[in-house]
Amino acid sequence: MDAIRLIHDKAELQGTCYIELLPGKYNGQCWNDGSLFIEEEVFELIEPIFERHEPQFDHYSFVCIQEPAWERIIAGLERLAERAEKATDVSDLRGDVGFLFRSTEAEFVRDFRANAGALARLSRELAAWLRQQLRDHECVSVLGM
Hints:
By secondary structure, the protein is an alpha+beta fold. The protein is built from four helices and four strands.
């Protein structure tokens, strides 16, 4: 599992296994300046929140998510951050956290406290970034795999 973090600079990307969050509507181009990137295995940790609050969301497609759905997703991210900060083991995060592979869960559990803390920081940072983008854009697009 890669580091649980957001990537702001596309120069840091290695390969193509990333979810891109693009301020505004998809413009026919991926790997945009100003986008936020999340490694696929890391995104899977928060993907259940997206699935629960945006019916059009699909891991493999491009979806322009409007502000009302983002508000629900942001609230879900903030709840996850609170749960992750208080969690004592992975069972405390069930329902809000997803694992792409069994090995991902095992790695997360191996250093649970550090990983839960990193997940809380990612969730809060993503919520803040989304709020900022929604001030200037009618939607933020999720460019899936």
